[in-house]
Amino acid sequence: MTKESLYKLLYGIWKNSNRSDFSGVGIIICNNPDSIPITSLRNTNPIKNDSTLELLTRISNKNSEYHDGFHILDETGAVIYTAQYFSPQIIDNISFDRSRIVGGRFVAALYGSCIDEIKFTGIVSEGDRLSIFKDGKEVYYEELQ
User: N- or C-end of the chain: fewer Cβ atoms within 10 A?
Assistant: First the structure.
């Protein structure tokens, strides 16, 4: 998955969501998730009978039990895990603009993008801000309208 295809997915989730119930979304692109610091927030998984875009749009809703945490996709865009608590190590030499309103998902995505096995991380906040991270840097940012 490229930065551009991750952008299209994140934007598509946001665009196709019901804005009043949109919970935000966090995505990790990683082929080997067993080596990253995640743990499942749920005992079950959502039914995966639709496309990645449709599935992630459906569960990025405050009424879905799977809306929280991060969703792990492989480099082809296939969903490996949903609703994962992601706890990367804090990296002292990475800074971010604290004048922007950011949350835990933003910071976890930023720090987590430094993990060797992770190609990209990306989020869309409830406040309609889309960010993509690679190697400890925000490589794309947009306020969606």
Answer: C
